[in-house]
C-alpha cells in the first residue's frame, strides 16, 4: 500500500504542477475578470437586486423560494443549500488555515480576489446550466458543463469541426468530475473529519493499528460509521440530500460564524494589524517563504487561488449540476443564487476562519510566519480550544463533521450526474456503491495526499468547463440583458429561457401563470 501511495503522489505532483501553473491561474482568474467586465460588474451594480432575489426572498411572506410541490425537482433554497453543502466544507476551515500557514496571510487576499471574480464565473455557469438543461428518463432535470459543452459549444456556432471537440471536452469534464468526486468530494473531506474527531475525542485513547499495516483502528471505525450513514442518505438521491442540507448547513454555518465573531471580540486590538498583514503579504513573500516574485506566485497567490476554488468551486462547473435541478424558471435567477453562494462561502465563512487563525496568536502578524509546531490541519480547532476550552475543540470537530459530511453528500450528486451523462442511470447505481465504499479509504489515507489529489482534480475539471464558459459568454450576456430588460427596466420583450423551443414555450407559460 505504501509503495502504491508513493507512486500516486509522484504522478499527482507532476500533473498538479502543470494544471496549477501560471497558465491555469490566468485561465481561472482571467475568465472571471472577462465576465465581470462584460456584465458591467453585475455583482456590484446589481447587488441590491440579486440580494433581494436570493437570500432576502426567503424572508418574504408568500415567497416561492423555499416552496416546491414538484417531486422531481428541489426548491431554489434547497438547491443553494445542496450547493453550499458541497462547498462549505473542510476548504473553509482546514483549507483556509493550511493556505495561511503555507502561503502566509497574503493568501487570504488572493482568496478574496478569486471569489470576487468567481462570483460572475459561478453566475455564468448557472445561467448556462439552466439554459441547456433537459429532463432525463425519470423526469428529473439534468444539467451541467457536459450539456452546455455538447449543445452549446458543439452546436451554437454551426461549425461541424466544433462538435467532436465539444464532445471530447464534455466527456473529459465528466471523467474529471467523477475523479474529483472521490478526491475533493470524498476522501479529502472524510480525512479531515477523522483527523479532527481523533484530535478532539480520542487523543488520549488509542487502539493501535491493524497488525502488519499503518492503518489506525480508530480512524477505520470512524470511516465505517460515516460509510453507513452516508449510504442511507446518498441512496435516497438528491431530494434526501437537499432536505438534509437544508437543515444542517444554515444551522452549522451560523453557529460557526457566531463562534468566530466571539473570538474576534476577544482580539479586537489585533483587527487592524491582521488586515495590514493580509494586504502587506499579498504583494511580498513572508520572511519564512523567502524573497522573489517566483515564490510570491507559487506560494501566496497559488495557495489563495487554489484554496479559494477548493472552497467555493467557482470555475469548476460542479455546483451547476445541483443548481440545474432547481424548480427555477429564469436562468439568471439561478445565476444570482450562484453569486450569493460564492459570497457566503468565501467572504463570510472563509473570512471567519482567517480572522480566527490570524487573531489568536498562532501567526506572527509582523513577519507573517506561523508559530513553531503549528499544524494547519487542526489550527482552527486549537484556536477555538484556546478560548472555549475543550467544548471549543469539540465544536470544531462537530462542525467539521457536518460541513465535510454534507460536502460528501453534495459531491455524490455531482458524480452521479457525470456518470449519468456517460453511462446512463444504470451506471449511477454502481457509482454510488463505489463512492460510498471510498469513504473508508479517505479515513485511513495520509492527509497531505488527499489534499494534493483534490487540487489536481479541481484543476482538471476547471479547464474544459472554462473553455465552454468562455466560448458561450456572449450568450450569457444576451440572456442577462434580456432579464434586465424584462425584470428591471420593465420592457415588453420575449424571455430567453431555454435552448430547446418546447421547454422554452412551456416555461414561458408557467412564468405567465406565476
Please give a structural write-up:
Helix 9 runs parallel beside helix 18. A two-stranded antiparallel ribbon has the order 1-2. The radius of gyration is 22 Å and the shape is globular. It has one domain: Amino acid/polyamine transporter I (Up-down Bundle). It is mostly helical and 514 residues long. The protein is built from 20 helices and 2 strands.
Jot down its keywords.
514 residues; mainly alpha; Amino acid/polyamine transporter I; two-stranded antiparallel ribbon; 20 helices; 1% strand; globular
Short description:
The chain has about 525 residues and is mainly α. The protein has a single domain, classed as Up-down Bundle (Amino acid/polyamine transporter I), CATH 1.20.1740.
List the helices and strands and how they pair.
Elements: H1 2-19, H2 22-38, H3 42-45, H4 47-53, H5 76-87, H6 91-103, H7 106-131, E1 134-135, E2 141-142, H8 145-153, H9 162-201, H10 217-234, H11 237-266, H12 271-280, H13 293-312, H14 320-323, H15 331-359, H16 379-388, H17 390-423, H18 425-444, H19 447-488, H20 501-513
Antiparallel strand pairs: 1-2
Helix pairs in contact: 1-19, 2-7, 2-19, 5-11, 5-15, 5-17, 6-13, 6-15, 7-12, 7-13, 7-15, 7-19, 8-9, 8-19, 9-10, 9-17, 9-18, 9-19, 10-17, 10-18, 11-15, 11-17, 16-17, 17-18
Indicate the proportion of strand residues: under 5%
Give the C-alpha Rg. Answer: 22 Å
Strand count, sense and barrel status of the largest sheet are: 2 strands, antiparallel
Task: Encode the helix/strand succession as letters.
Answer: HHHHHHHEEHHHHHHHHHHHHH
Number of strands: 2
| Name given to the CATH homologous superfamily | Amino acid/polyamine transporter I
- Give unreliable regions as ranges: 287-297
Cα-to-Cα separation, first versus last residue: 59 Å
Q: Assign the CATH class.
A: Mainly Alpha
CATH architecture: Up-down Bundle
CATH fold call:
Amino acid/polyamine transporter I
Widest β-sheet, arrangement of strands: 1-2
How many distinct helices?
20
Overall spatial form: globular
Provide the helix percentage.
over 70%
